[in-house]
Every structure is written in structure tokens, then in C-alpha cells.
Amino acid sequence: MEVNGLKLELGYIFIKDIQFAEKSKVENGTLYVNKEEVKAIILEDQNFKSADVELAKPGESVRIMPVKDVIEPRVKVEGPGGIFPGMVSKVETVGSGKTNVLKGAAVITTGKIVGFQEGIIDMTGPGAEYTPFSQTNNLVLVCEPIESLKQHEHEKALRFAGYKVAMYLGELAKNMTPDQVDTFETPTLVEGIKMYPELPRVAYVCMLQSQGLMHDTYVYGVDAKQTISTLIYPTEMMDGAIVSGNCVSACDKNTTYHHLNNPVVHDLFAEHGKTLNFVGVIITNENVYLADKERSSNWSAKLAEYLGVDGVIVSEEGFGNPDTDLIMNCKKIENKGIKTVLITDEYAGRDGTSQSLADADVRANAVVTGGNANEVIELPPMDKIIGHVEVADVIAGGFDGSLHADGSITAELQVITGATNEMGFNKLSAR
Amino acid sequence: MVKEIERAGIPVVHMCTIVPISLTVGANRIVPTIAIPHPLGNPSLTLEEERDIRRNLVGRALRALETEVTEQTVFEK
Amino acid sequence: MLKVVHYINQFFANVGGEEMAHIPAELREGNVGPGLAFQQAFGDEAQIVATIVCGDSYFNENMEEAQKTIINMVKELQPDLFIAGPAFNAGRYGVACGTIAKAVKDQLNIPVLTGMYKENPGADMFKTSLYVVSTKNSAAGMRDAVKKMAPLALKLAKGEKIGASSEEGYMPNGIRKNFFDTERGSKRAVKMLLSKLADKEFETEFPMPDFDRVAPNPAVKDITKAKIALVTSGGIVPKGNPDHIESSSASKYGKYDIDGVMDLTEATYETAHGGYDPVYANLDPDRVLPVDILREFEKQGKIGSLHRYFYTTVGNGTAVKSAKAFAAKFAQELKADGVDAVILTST
Amino acid sequence: MIITNNEKVYDKYKDKIKIIFVQGGFKDVLVKTRDKIHEGHELLTHPLSSSVKPNETPFKSVMISDDKRSLNLDSLYIIENSIMTYDNFSKHKFGMMTDQITEDFKLIDLTVLESALNI
Description:
- The complex is a heterotetramer.
- Chain C is an alpha/beta fold.
- Chain C contains eleven helices and 14 strands.
- A six-stranded mixed beta sheet of chain C has the order 2-3-1-4-5-6, with helices on both faces. In chain C, strands 8, 10, 12, 13 and 14 form a five-stranded mixed beta sheet that branches. A two-stranded antiparallel ribbon of chain C has the order 9-11.
- In chain C, strand 4 (81-84), helix 4 and strand 5 (112-117) form a beta-alpha-beta unit.
- In chain C, helix 3 (63-77) crosses helix 4.
- Chain D is an alpha+beta fold.
- A four-stranded mixed beta sheet of chain D has the order 2-1-4-3.
- Chains in contact: A-C, A-D, B-C, B-D, C-D.
């Protein structure tokens, strides 16, 4: 039965290897990339004076740093709009039709926007276990800005370079037959209520970081700090309606890759129609202004009530003040009689003994943790460093002497991109 | 802290400015006070006026200790 | 091979039940009772060289003496590990296991392990200072307990890295440790939500701070006869802060004699508290600790007496972690000193 | 009004907005803010704004209300928790401070504050 709402078919083309070649193409699971064409795309932006492109594959002795964003190449095959609407594609409502995905490939942007940087991806060794991007075949962009470029413009230019290169790679899969197709469908509110009347109705509250330079998230091109909590179909996220412009506190920032592959959305879809009725997604921001925090959490609670859900999962993004948003969301939603499960991470100190969250409430009685970001890790030297090696000693979460003479690094887990992700992307936990 | 004293079997009255915090930490007999930096005084008054306020508050605390309670109780007057 | 000494009570040593709980500590060679199951689980990696058997009543009623004797026995044997119990839901046995294991750990610096049911009073007393394995509530759970305790025991004896509580089976001790779970966080969240929605039991991965409650004590019968003690979290100390109480996250509390002190003045007292602007409290410390008024009431017979000592900490209202431990300690002193009621002032 | 130890914020807004400039570190700004809240000012921005950890950046700017009312409990709760979190982090101080990095930290602090000012 055809229903109204949004229905998206995600076609996965599995990528097992990445190589440079004369012609960019996808063949037998290998992504071939013409380096010069990619460089030319980056240098279309006159803010960059030079660019380099490198490969990093699983198992290689390679360290990438400082990472700004990770993006999965996707392309719209059928249906309205294009990937990253409002950013590089027109503002068209996405999330329906067909989208092809180069599953197993990723574009990684690196850059030294400010003097202190973090975001490490190791492709092998103990650090590799903590980041999902040690398992993807990565095309890494190393872009050098022109002298006078201001930090804000630099950040924006890097972000767009990543989207454009990811779009370019995605295009290669436009006419391919996927190895696997998964279908995701969300009916309208009215139809959804009728579909599984016996199952508990569940929504997902996705919190978005929104606080300034290198702390921002964009929804259909709008800076999330200027939004009020709203509803979005989960499939819109799969087409890049939400992108990341934030990378400070690398361990618990959602990259664009995380938004495209939101694990809560996927795991709720997996149970949809079986044990629960996945109604939709509420997105809400994490602003600096306390009145904004009150307003946004009021709205997410109001929308949850309006959707008539029995339970929600709330995912946080970032460290410190978002704990306040998280607890506000929890309290206000629980007060509506709706049950909550929260996903967060912890800063319990290196010895694990400190109070982990900057806020707490008795109603937050169901919490999933992505681990203690202060736990110290030893990263052995790698044969090759891609990016800007000189930043190693001034990465956040590092400390005096964190970069040793042999190239090894002693630092807290928080330097590793995606290590304690608060969407629950990883298996890491803590007790 | 107030809970540990209560747990030891000694009736305790908590004199504090922030009643919600007192409720959170589990005090059973609560007397609200003036302000954080000077809970039992008020520097804008004369010494004698301050003593009057303090006398009144401590008197209220003694009354709280003499009062049977079954749940968290704030002694506003 | 690693050497292990095992501590059990009279019941598990097959000496007898409650009627034999008075027997003092004795040393036996090799394993006894549940020690056999541990020995089998250790294989040839470790050997129980001796078992200490002690009656529960004896241990709890002669705690100092019993500890001394047992410590000397263990010292003599120089083991690589000391295991006590498991005690399951036996309260006095659990307390004995925890007490003696802690003593061995602290005094002899030997790794120790015990196990008991989560509601055993010994669990709350010792789970933050020792590895206490969570067992079932009766001896029927012995096999399960040994299965959890033996591998952890070997790790401890070898000095290996100990994983998170949920991996190793010990009770959460307040120290957060990372580990890789079998499913990703989002999946765990969906499962937790389904349990919560179905009103089934679920376990949060991150317990919020303690929000428990203590029932109010009965009122003071006659306040005019009562001995009242003053306690403050406002950090009032004698001028010069003789005990060097830290301005925040203090590692100690102060206990000060106010015998004959009628009024706290700028010249004699001050605040050590870093959690508020100290100007007003320093000018007149009675604004935080009303000694002047209580002396007045004492003279007028409105109270029986003001206790000779006041206690001070620098709690800041929201951070209650360390204050809790201090308070538990001085509350016992107040009780022993015959204090009838406490006025606690906070800033 | 703004409480800050960041000259970049002070210089830019000193003629437009009431500013208390604090000579000192991150913690000094938090303590000054706390004292102001105790006096009855309301906290307007979160003291742990930005994802830069408090042991990494020496700069902090916080906005509070100009007027005083009765003690605001939410403000009090947030500032006390922020100071506690700061103390947890300050056990391990972050070293390495070149002029450029110092400038960058000032800039991040400024942009985060401006995200609340809507400028």
C-alpha cells in the first residue's frame, strides 16, 4: 500500500579499496580517483592557494590530523533535490526516491583554522579501535589557505571543499546498480497512528551543537542556532539535510558522516513495526544563551507531546553546557509523561573518579554512555602523517609533552574523532 | 551532610538560603535564611537589628526541632 | 605458582551454624569448603596454601583482636592474593569479609577480593574501597560466584589491568572505566527504551548522583533540656585557619572548642569557604554560625546547653560527595557525646 | 553586562555594553560571576559555553543581567556546577601557549559570546 510521507531507497555500493587513477570511477568495489580533478575542485575556491589529496586505508600506518569533518559520498538517483540541500544543492525537500551511497568510502577534510586543533584518526594500532573512520577507505583533503584568510572564511571554505569533493565522488555511483538496497519509510502522522496501534510510539530528539566558530551545525543551509526545535523526516537526514560545521571536542562531535548515518535513526527503523512505531525526529539546538536553552527544550517537549509518543531517545552533542540542554530536555519531556533514554558521554577525569556530567536530575534514570573522554591513551608513532603534524602538541586533550620525540602521542581519548560519539555510533561504554 | 546526621539518629534542622538545594540534599526540617554570603545576618542593618533577625531565625530553628514531621518541611514562619 | 590465602566463616568450614559462631580464628592448611571449587577453577595457576576459619560472632565482637591475629597469619604466609568469602546474603559474614580484606590490603599491601549479595550490608560498606564481586543471595549461587571470582582473582594476583565493573563482575565502585560493549550505543539505547516502556527492569549505564532520602527523626521532647550542637558548611574557622582547611573540595573538616566563647568576632574567627564572597562572614562570623544567640538562649534557659565543639566544612550546597563521608564520621561523635539535636547552617 | 578576562571582547564592546574586566584566569571569571549571582543578577549565557575545555583556554566571557532581583536559582545551580566542572578539569592544566594560539582562543571566546549577542 502506498502511503503519504517520505520513502527513501538507499542503494549501497560497497567500497573495499581506494586508489588514484587516470579516470575517476567505481569498479569491482574499488574507488578510483583522479587526483588532479579533485585538486581542481578544491582550488575553485580562491581562498585556497594550494591543495593536496591523499589516501588512507584501513590497516595502514597512517595518522590523519587535525580532522575537521568526515563525509560519506552519496548521490540522488531519483526523487527531488540533491545531496546537502541548502548548502551545495538547491533548497528542495529531500529524503524520498533513491539515493546511492559509496559505503566504505569517506572524504576527510583537515585544516589548521586556529592554533589549537584536535581530531586524530589513526588507521591502525590502538587509536584505530576508537574511531569508526579507521575502517573506511578515505580520501583526505589537505588545503592551504591564502595568507590573509580569516578563520571564519577558512572554516567555511574547508567545509564546502569537503561537500563538493564528496558530491563529485558520489556522482560516480549515479548510474550504478547497488550491491544492496535498504528501504526506509515514514508515513504522515495521521497514517502512522493507524499503522501499528498496538506498538509504543517512539520519537528521536537529536540535539545539534550551535555556538559559533567551529561549533555550528546547519539544517538545509540554516545555522542551527537561529532555529527553533522542529520536525524532520529521518530520511531527510540520510540525504544530507543536516551537516556539521563543528569539530572542537573531536570525540563527541557529530561529523557530517554521523548525520548521514545517524545510528539512532537506523536502529529505530530496524525495530519499526516490530517492537515500536518510529514516528519521526525532533531536532533541537544547543545555544549559549540560557533563554534559548529554555525555549528550545520547551519546544522539543511540546513537539514530543504533540506527536503523541510514549518514549523518546535523546542524543547530546559536545561537552559541558549541552549537559544543561540534555537535562532540560529530559526533565520537560518526562514531565509530559513521556519516557526518555539519554545518550551522552563522560568527563570523569583521567582516573575516572570525578562527577561526569555538568548537570544531573533524578528523572535521568536511563542513560547510555559513549565512554569517559578523559581516559588517557597512548598512540604509537605512525609511518606517515597526513595533515598538519605540528599541531600535535597543541591539540586539545593533549598536554605538555603529549607529542614524544619518536612521534608517539600520549593524550586523552577526546582527541580522537568520533571516539565517544553521543549518537551511540560506537560500542565504547563505561561503568 | 544533613542526611548523614539524620541517619545517625540525631534530629537536625537545616538553616540555609537555597531551599530547593536543601530539599535536594534531603533535609527534613528546613529554615530559610537571608542570603548566601550572610545567611543569619544582614549587613545593611544595625548590629542590634541583625541580632533580632538572627534571634528570630534561631528561635524558629528550635521550634522546628520541637516539631514532629513526617516529610520534608519548610518552616517559613 | 601463585599463593592464595582464603578466609571463610564457621558455617562454610562445616564447623557449625550459629551455635559455633563464637570460635576464634584458626589456620588450616590447604583449601577448606568452598576453597575446593576455587582451587579447581585456578587449575595449576594458583594454589590455596591456607584457609583461615573464623566465627562470625567472634570476628564482629572482637574486631580488633581478630584482625590482628588474622593479619599476622597472612603476613607469615606472604600470599599473592587474599580471598574472603563469598558471603552471599549473610550480613555479619559480609562485614567480616570486607573488614578483613580491607585490612589485609591496607596493612600488607596484598591484592584482595571478596564477594557477596548486593544487599548484604558489607556491600555498601566496602564496594568503593575493594573489589567486591556481586553474587546471588544464597550459597546455592556458589558455582556462579566462583566462576566470576576466580578469573578476577587471578588477574589481581598477577597485577593485570582490571576492566570495567560490568566486564569483570565486581560492584560499581564509582571509578568510571571504559570498555567495548557488544552492541553500539544507539542499539543499547533502543533496548533500554523498550524495557522502560514495558515497565521492565533496566540498568542505566550512568547512575545519577544519590538522591536517596532519610526519614526524619522524632522531635526533641524538651528543647530547654536539650544539648544542641552547631554544624556549618559555611567554613567558619578560628582566625588564621589553623587546620588549613581548603577553600573548596576540602580534604578535611574542622572541629573547634567553643567552651567559654560567647560571640564570634572579626578578631577571632573567619571563613575558609571559597564558595561565596567572604567579606560579610569575616566581619561577623555569627552571620553564618550563630554562637552569640545560642549563648544567649543557653543563659535564658531556652536550650539546655550548647555543645562544647562545633564542626565546620566548606560544602557548597551542590557538591555533597566528600561532605557525606565527613558527616558520617562526626555524626557518630556527636551521638557519642550525647548531643540531642543539631543546627546545621549553610551559605 | 559582560564579565570577561578577554581583551578582545573588552575592546570591542566596552563602549556599547557594561563590562566587568577581570584580571585573572578562567576560574576568576567564574568566581566573579558567582558572586554577582549571589547578589541577585541573573545568568544569561552558560559559563561552559563552547566545547573548548576549561583547562585548555584561559579566556572566558559570561553575560549576566544588568539588574538585580531575588536570587535566581537556575543561575545559581548552573554556576556552581560549572565551577565544579572547572575544578575537575583544572587538575590537568594545558600548557603550550604561543601568541597565535592565545589570539585564537580569544577569537573563539569572542565568537561564542557573539553567538548569544546576535551580532
